[in-house]
Amino acid sequence: MSLEFLITALVVVLVPGTGVVYTVAVGLSRGRWQSIAAAFGCTLGILPAILASVLGLSALLHMGALVFQVLKYAGAAYLLYLAVQTLRASGPMDLASGQAAPKSALRTATTGFLINILNPKLTVFFLAFLPQFISPSDPHPVFSMLGMGGVFMAMTFAVFVVYGCFAALVGDRVLSSERAMTWMRRSVAAAFAGFGLKLAVSSR
User: Where are the transmembrane segments (predicted)?
Assistant: First the structure.
């Protein structure tokens, strides 16, 4: 596993996306342990894309316009749904139900999982990303890709946990101010809506 892969993967993971927005929002509103559950769910949502890429199914997805479009619009709709629910919440942000009631760690993780699994661009990304770091002389390219996929997931989980736990540290200050909560809610909703619209209008 090359140093170039490790550096590139870390840079990709550090760039904020929908998973980071969700994990940070959970950390701000529901604390450290729930943010770890969110990070775990988002990380687990990467697994199908990695496996599809490794097994060659992503090539079919890349060529199948109908499959890609269906997944793309489903993912965009889910992100827009999260944006609406965030705006509707009147208490601490609950991105799944729009209510202030506490959520279980399982539900938190499930939402994170759905955010990533419904993004077909992840599969196309891994199709283009992982093979670049496979040597033509590698006798076991499948195992190498699985190893790199595992490292990428480990990096994702670690970085998301740091994001979420940092958000949890400042969460009490944010939650004590209704004005800050309102702006935070609007910002998170705008981020989800932006990601959703970007996914909806994106081309293959």
Answer: 6-25, 37-60, 66-84, 113-134, 146-171
pTM: 0.71
Cα dihedral: 56, 60, 62, 66 (round 10) = -150
The DSSP secondary-structure symbol of 119 reads -
Average pLDDT value for the chain = 75
CA distance 54 to 141: 9
- Amino acid identity of residue 155, one-letter, is M
Helix (H) or strand (E) holding 69: helix 65-88
pLDDT (0 to 100) of residue 148: 86
Decide if 40 contacts 112 (C-beta within 8 A): yes
109-118 confidence digits (pLDDT tens)? 998 898 888 7
In our burial notation (b when 16+ CB lie closer than 10 A, e otherwise), range 159-191 reads bbbebbbebbeebeebbeeeeebeebbeebbeb
Give the span between the Cα atoms of 30 and 100, in whole angstroms. Answer: 10
Instruction: Find tokens 């998301």 and name the residue.
Output: 160
